[in-house]
């Protein structure tokens, strides 16, 4: 009853009849109990525009599932773009809406580098704080947990929406109209509608739908609106006349209504994905000058990643420029993340040199040791990993930090060593405890 209306209802039969068709929104998904909770409040529906586009297809004409899949692809890229520049279909085409299709497992438009935390403010230091305050739940951790839980709920709702669309594929504009009326704030649904119009070779109607979506989705739904803007930018990159001028018009509009940092990153991602390298370099240079503080670290890291993915050997000049530009308190964050990028898509030896450099300056930073160990463990060279662990556990750190390192070492040996190695780490830990008690 509480989800039927924003107003109080004494008896449901005063509003609805048994068997009556209604419009509802998915508000919760309980996968364990296999239940979906629905809501019919006006506040859930937003300000929908009841506008019917003429169907471009006979409603009775059947379309096979694989035919519909073909309609949702076009050469050159997806509307939402792709954060991973290496993702490509077998036939060389990029799937349209690839980002939206993955929303069941990836937060919508989570604009970050593949291996870089988008929140660069005190990036590595946050891990140190977690290590130092193990077992302590503070306000920041609670807020972070609540935010994560909210994202999980949104992810479940997206997955449910996607399953509904896949189970009942819209075949006409009329059917898409019904879908957007039932889920008016879902960028996933609106972008599917845009893709349908592109499959009908009608870019103008796809633009019209993008504008409708921007006018319909509530301004509080920041991610949903941003998804539409990014899809719109990608659409103009493919169909604009001329493309660059059309892209910049939409980009400038998007900046007025969204977080500029995320909009710039979205445009950069589009340039990289479509191999417009000159425009990408120019935009990166502009972003370096425009943005300051934490986000500037992210931009410099994006530049490093771009160079490494292009297999260029020009990282050091960029690193040197970044260190001259960034405030000193950001240097360790930047160098540690650059080292991780070197391990993952560059030259591991350069990554090792960077970690060794910052550990000489900050030998008691447990978070740096942990990040360094993680990269070596990923590469899997036991002859390198075990000596690095030995160096780490020989440090004179707080008990909580030493416990963290010993547990990490023990976990590694349980996965990769034998009983003798496990017993060795346990003996080392007991010896540390004994020495600590004597001190």
From TrEMBL:
Every S1 motif domain range: 1-41
Record-linked Gene3D superfamilies: Nucleic acid-binding proteins, Tetratricopeptide repeat domain
Residue ranges with Basic residues bias: 139-150
Keyword Repeat annotated: yes
Keywords of the record: Nucleus, Repeat, rRNA processing
Pfam families from the UniProt entry: S1, Suf
One CC-aspect GO term: nucleolus
GO terms classed as biological process: rRNA processing
InterPro entries in alphabetical order: HAT, NA-bd_OB-fold, Rrp5, S1_domain, Suf, TPR-like_helical_dom_sf
Tree of life domain: Eukaryota
Ranges where the record places region Disordered: 132-159
Protein's UniProt keywords contain Membrane: no
Principal location class: nucleus
SUPFAM superfamilies on file: Nucleic acid-binding proteins, TPR-like
Annotated GO MF terms: nucleic acid binding
Subcellular locations according to the entry: Nucleus, Nucleolus
Name the UniProt record assigns to this protein: S1 motif domain-containing protein
Organism field: Juglans regia
């Amino acid at each position: 009853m509480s989800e039927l209306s924003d107003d109080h209802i004494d008896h449901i039969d005063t509003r609805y009849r048994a068997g009556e068709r209604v419009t509802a929104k998915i508000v919760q998904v309980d996968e364990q109990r296999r239940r979906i909770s629905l809501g019919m409040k006006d506040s859930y529906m937003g300000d929908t525009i009841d506008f019917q586009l003429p169907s471009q297809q006979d409603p009775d004409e059947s379309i096979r599932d694989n035919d519909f899949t073909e309609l949702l692809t076009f050469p050159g890229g997806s509307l939402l773009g792709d954060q991973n520049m290496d993702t490509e279909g077998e036939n060389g085409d990029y799937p349209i809406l690839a980002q939206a299709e993955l929303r069941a497992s990836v937060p919508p438009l989570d604009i970050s580098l593949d291996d870089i935390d988008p929140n660069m403010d005190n990036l590595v230091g946050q891990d140190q704080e977690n290590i130092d305050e193990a077992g302590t739940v503070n306000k920041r951790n609670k807020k972070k947990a609540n935010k994560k839980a909210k994202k999980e709920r949104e992810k479940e709702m997206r997955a449910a929406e996607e399953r509904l669309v896949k189970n009942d594929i819209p075949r006409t504009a009329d059917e898409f109209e019904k879908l957007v009326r039932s889920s008016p704030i879902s960028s996933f649904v609106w972008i599917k509608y845009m893709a349908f119009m592109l499959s009908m070779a009608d870019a103008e109607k796809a633009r019209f739908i993008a504008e409708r979506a921007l006018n319909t989705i509530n301004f509080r739904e920041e991610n949903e609106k941003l998804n539409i803007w990014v899809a719109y930018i990608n659409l103009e990159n493919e169909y604009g006349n001329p493309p660059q001028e059309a892209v910049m018009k939409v980009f400038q509009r998007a900046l007025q209504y969204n977080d500029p940092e995320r909009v710039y990153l979205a445009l950069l991602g589009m340039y990289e994905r479509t191999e417009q390298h000159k425009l990408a370099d120019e935009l990166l240079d502009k972003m370096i000058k425009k943005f300051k503080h934490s986000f500037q670290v992210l931009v410099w890291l994006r530049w490093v990643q771009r160079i490494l993915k292009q297999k260029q050997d020009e990282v050091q000049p960029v690193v040197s420029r970044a260190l001259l530009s960034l405030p000193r308190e950001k240097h360790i964050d930047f160098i540690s993340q650059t080292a991780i990028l070197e391990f993952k898509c560059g030259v591991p030896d350069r990554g090792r040199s960077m970690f060794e450099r910052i550990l000489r300056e900050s030998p008691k930073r447990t978070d740096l040791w942990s990040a360094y160990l993680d990269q070596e463990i990923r590469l899997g060279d036991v002859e390198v990993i075990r000596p690095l662990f030995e160096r780490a556990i020989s440090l004179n750190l707080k008990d909580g930090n030493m416990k963290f390192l010993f547990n990490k070492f023990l976990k590694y040996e349980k996965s990769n060593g034998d009983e003798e190695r496990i017993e060795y780490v346990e003996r080392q830990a007991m010896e540390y405890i004994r020495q600590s008690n004597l001190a």
